[in-house]
C-alpha cells in the first residue's frame, strides 16, 4: 500500500478506513483529488486474513479502551474494528434496506427522531451501491422489500439448516426469503464467489464478501489515494474564525505528534470515536466541542437489541455450512411498529447462521449449564443437528444514551470515551414478544426444547445524528457538521433512529450521497 509522509496540504483527509471512509476516499481519488486516509490500527490485506476464531477476534477493537455503562451495553469491543477496513472487515455482509417507516418515527408514531431525508432520497443510492458492489438476493421473495432495482446477482443457496427452520416459519404462516447478502454468488475478474465455509466474521480472504479490502478501499488506493496506519488523530483543527476545518493533529506509532492540513476533512472513525474526536477538538469558538453548541454530540447512541434462538433438529442440519450472517430473512412484522402491551418497533429474523463457538452468535454463551460429562453427548448430537437464528429489534433513541469524555486518559494523554446505553422499556417488551415467536417457530419446525441466548447489543448507531436544524442535530443530511461545513461526519453515527436492519448498506448509500455532494 502507498504511504504518504506528513505534508502541508491534501485535498481530502479521511479519518478511518472502514466502509464509510473508503467510499469517500474512492470517489474523491477517482475525481482526481489528493486523498490521505489516516487509520489508527495496523495494516492488513485480504491475504492476511485467516479463517479461525482466534483471527476473528484480532479484527475487533484494539484501540483505546471504551468504558461502558448501562443495562444494554453497545459492545464496542465486538462491534468495532481496528486496522485496515475497520469494522466492515468483520461484518457479515447482511444488507437489507431500511424501510419507508424507519425515517419518520417521531412524526408517524410519536417515538424517537425523524431523519432529514426519507426513503425516496436514498433509493437511487441503494440501487447504485447494489450495482457497484453486487448483492445476492431474490427480490421477488422479499414481499416486504421497499422499492428498488432487482438484485444484481443470483441469491446464495439455502442449505439444510435453512430448509429445516423455514418449515417452522411456514407452519406459523410466516414468510422467508434469501437474505440479501453483499457476498458474491458468482465470481468477477477480481473477486471470487463464496465457498460457504461460514467464516465471514474472520474477514473472507477470497474477496467474496464486500468488505473495504475487496471493494471501495481497493478502488481508492488504485486511484491514487494514500493510507497511513498507526495514526491516531487527536484533534481537528479549525481556522481563526472557527468556521472551517483546516487539518488535524495525530500521533504516530512511536507517540510523535504530527500535523497535516486539508481542504476537506471526513470523520469516519465509527460511532464511538467520532463523537470522542469532536469533543476533544473544542476550541475558543466551539468551547464544548465541534458541532456541540446544543449539547448533542455523543447523544442518542443506539445498538440493536438482538436475541438468538437455538435448538436441536431431528434431521441433519450441517450447521457449519453457509454464512455467519445466515441464509434466510423474515420481515413479516417489520412495517408494524406498534404492538400489544405498548411494545414498539420493527424486528427481523436472520435465519440459519453458520455456527461458531464464541462471540455474539456463538453457542457457548447460551448454554453455560452444559459442561463435564454432559458436554460430549451434546456435541455429538449438535454437530450435525444444531440450528439457530437471531432476531434484531429497533432501539428507541434516547438522549441519555451517549458518548462522553472520561477523566481517564489513553497512552497519548487523550481522554477515553465513555459510552452509556440503557434499553427503552418499549424496546425491551418488543424483544420479549419476538423471542416468544422465535421459540414457537422452532417448535413448529420440530425442535422439542428450543432455548434462547442472552440479549446482546448488535451494531452501533447514533452519537452524531443528522437533522434539518442545528438546534436538534449535529450535522445536516450530508453529514456536514453545523458551523463547520467542510467537516463531514460519515457512518452509522448519523442515524437519528436505528430501524431494525443491519446498518452497513445504508452507511454505503449515505456515504455515496454525501461524497458526491462534497465533490460538487
Features:
520 residues; alpha/beta; eight-stranded mixed β-sheet; FAD/NAD(P)-binding domain; globular; single chain; disordered N terminus
Task: Please give a structural write-up.
The structure is a single chain. With 520 residues, the chain is of the alpha/beta class. It has 11 helices and 18 strands. The longest helix is centred in the C-terminal third of the chain and has 20 residues, at 425-444. It starts with 9 loop residues before the first strand and ends with a helix. Mean pLDDT is 95; it is low at 1-5.
How many individual β-strands? 18
Bin the helical content: 10-25%
CATH-defined architecture: 3-Layer(bba) Sandwich
- Beta content comes to 15-25%
Mean pLDDT, all residues: 95
Radius of gyration: 22 Å
Our count of helices gives: 11
CATH topology title: FAD/NAD(P)-binding domain
Q: What's the CATH H-level superfamily name? A: FAD/NAD(P)-binding domain
Looking at the structure, what is the overall shape?
globular
Protein structure class? alpha/beta
What's a concise summary of this model?
With 520 residues, the chain is α/β, with parallel strands linked by helices. It is built from eleven helices and 18 strands.
Q: How would the blueprint of this fold be written?
A:
Layout: E1 10-15, H1 19-30, E2 35-38, H2 53-58, E3 66-69, H3 76-79, H4 105-109, H5 119-133, H6 160-171, E4 177-178, H7 216-222, E5 226-228, E6 232-238, E7 245-251, E8 257-267, H8 270-280, E9 302-312, E10 328-330, E11 347-351, H9 375-385, E12 386-393, E13 402-409, E14 415-420, H10 425-444, E15 451-452, E16 456-461, E17 480-481, E18 484-489, H11 504-519
Parallel strand pairs: 1-2, 1-8, 2-5, 3-14, 8-18
Antiparallel strand pairs: 4-10, 6-7, 7-8, 9-12, 9-15, 9-16, 10-11, 11-12, 13-14, 17-18
Helix pairs in contact: 1-7, 1-11, 5-11, 6-10
